[in-house]
């Protein structure tokens, strides 16, 4: 039996021998085509190769790959079918060979036949080919390998590709089909490829891109013709392994066996559907997350969340309701890490993320299912046939049930879901969200703008620091005034960038602007009158504090560099979740699941400063949003953009949708220094940094600290660390000595301790608040007391240092029958805000309180019983 892994390597090797370059799989997140949700075919990463007008600048003209593919979430997604049929998958691998203006039909057909028959040794008699109805050329080539009656002509639907848009490249296809045998078919006389039944399995699709279609539908022959082929690995494996279902092949068997062990449920014909869904889905989420997708409530993240939740529900049906996919994902890593090394690199991250996601869903899954099942039986009783939109929405909103999951569960019971009703509820919530925002305090503050119908302010600040403008409105607020003009060079706080300061003046009037806000495109200048009087409709000079604006611009451009560099160094999963761009610092919040390591921080700093020194030109242009995204501009998930957007690029390094003000060249940033890295929330980190003179001041401060330390330690900078280490070491030794001396002193007090013992309920209790802080030393002392006391004695000694208490409970052996030192220790620890425990005869405890030790000692009888 030929293993799946073997088929993949045979394929790559075969085409490598035909001078193809082996190109490793692209990420599931399409890098070159942001319009695609996931990479769904081998050709996606070669789009530029296909589009090239000539072969002159191509690094190679023949390629072969095994591509990770994910098909889910698009319009024509059939997630509900996955696992229920023998051939549907979300995640699968696609084998493909490609020619970019190199070989064409002759070789493509010949090699496909040769590979299938000679390399894979598939029975040639079972092989059929289909060609496009008008493609005589392909038909004739096939005749060299197959008898005429096993070559079928099919129409556009089956055997024609493209163009992808209204115009563009297109061409006929040819497919190889495998005859599964009469038993699998409909039995009709003319059953052949193209028939509706399951007899003929399509195994390989060859696309011959030979035409260009124009707007009128005219076809012209391309000068550079391309070949694009695709063969599903799991499917061809099912043929070679002689099984009737893709999920029966070796790699799925292994995965299902591990699932059986984890779920402790036997895989049987009766429950195989659930296992198949789990096996498919765990592959999809493991590969997607290791490629940087993070489960979330929109876009790719939502698709992955849905898939994960669907898999969890299958386990629930099998009677298992704990997180398990994170464990099973390790089998996927093990199976494929040699082909897709990213799996191994991201292993920990993937596992953590899956587990977190599982835990959060399982918390609500049970409750949600109860509600849904209650509703379903209710519906059955009342003989209705539909779950109302309100319930579906509640399940979505409160219990995290994707609508599709509710539909699927309902469908199993023959019940529909009111999708329109669901949409209505969704819309209502959106409105509620907006209203609550409108009614908020912050916004009411500016109600006067709308009440007085003040027009939008024309913003001039992208290329001007100073301008003349007409005063339209003035609002008095506490000790401030708010002035609004018809136009302004002042930047109003938006997109994380703080507002400008500056002044507004005329010959006999001066107003200082302390803050600028932007409210629905109206720029509000907030400040105080310095001298004179103003009048509405009069023209004034508006002058932004240039130096401060420049400092803000440095930080803003640096933020863009930081965003890009974080993606480079930490991975594509990094996304901005918030930012602050001020004149004296910048702050950047982003998704990432671990602390950013020190070495990574150094790399980030270094890389950004490299880009500063390269002095990249910063340019801005207005663009249609679709076009901008297509060109790979980073957009923030949380932002809503207009149709026309402003794109800020630093040469070909970073590209972001942004309305802020920037420097003209990165060199103006001067220097970039990270000042802090911290955790903001689960999965969100924060980096703070300074630039320009701010960075210089920071370094100077650090230098100053060094100088002071050198003075204190009587050292030079290069020896400082060694010197500090040495002093710490000395200190530790001294501490030990002190403890020793204290111990000596304490030993002398054994007699005294014993003399001060008290008797409670017939037991002798030796107790003291001792002047010791090392648990070992305290224990030694207690042991000495015990040795001396011999029997019927409980010893409790508590020591303390400035911020913690530490103590020992020791019982003579005769007492352990009725008392337990560990339990006593625990009780005392509770009072100390700490913990404790141990054996029946000896236990240790400690805590963060030290103020009540004497009180505890005084009332020890309360703890011993
Ligand atoms: Zn048929
Ligand atoms: Zn920006």
UniProtKB/TrEMBL annotation:
It is an enzyme of class 6 (ligase). Its EC number is 6.1.1.7. InterPro entries: aa-tRNA-synth_II/BPL/LPL (IPR045864), Ala-tRNA-lgiase_IIc (IPR002318), Ala-tRNA-ligase_IIc_anticod-bd (IPR018162), Ala-tRNA-synth_IIc_core (IPR018165), Ala-tRNA-synth_IIc_N (IPR018164), Ala-tRNA_ligase (IPR050058), Ala_tRNA_ligase_euk/bac (IPR023033), DHHA1_dom (IPR003156). SUPFAM superfamilies: Class II aaRS and biotin synthetases, Putative anticodon-binding domain of alanyl-tRNA synthetase (AlaRS), ThrRS/AlaRS common domain, Translation proteins. One of its GO terms (cellular component) is cytosol. GO terms for biological process: alanyl-tRNA aminoacylation. Its cofactor is Zn(2+). Residues 2-701 form the Alanyl-transfer RNA synthetases family profile domain. Keywords: Aminoacyl-tRNA synthetase, ATP-binding, Coiled coil, Cytoplasm, Ligase, Metal-binding, Nucleotide-binding, Protein biosynthesis, RNA-binding, tRNA-binding, Zinc. Pfam families: DHHA1, tRNA-synt_2c, tRNA_SAD. GO terms for molecular function: alanine-tRNA ligase activity; aminoacyl-tRNA deacylase activity; ATP binding; tRNA binding; zinc ion binding. The keyword Transcription does not apply. It is found in: Cytoplasm. Residues 714-792 form a coiled coil. Binds 1 zinc ion per subunit. Zn(2+) binds at residues 556, 560, 658, 662. It comes from the Bacteria. It catalyses: tRNA(Ala) + L-alanine + ATP = L-alanyl-tRNA(Ala) + AMP + diphosphate. Consists of three domains; the N-terminal catalytic domain, the editing domain and the C-terminal C-Ala domain. The editing domain removes incorrectly charged amino acids, while the C-Ala domain, along with tRNA(Ala), serves as a bridge to cooperatively bring together the editing and aminoacylation centers thus stimulating deacylation of misacylated tRNAs. Belongs to the class-II aminoacyl-tRNA synthetase family. Catalyzes the attachment of alanine to tRNA(Ala) in a two-step reaction: alanine is first activated by ATP to form Ala-AMP and then transferred to the acceptor end of tRNA(Ala). Also edits incorrectly charged Ser-tRNA(Ala) and Gly-tRNA(Ala) via its editing domain. This is Alanine--tRNA ligase. The lineage of its organism: Bacteria, Candidatus Macinerneyibacteriota, Candidatus Mcinerneyibacteria, Candidatus Mcinerneyibacteriales, Candidatus Mcinerneyibacteriaceae.
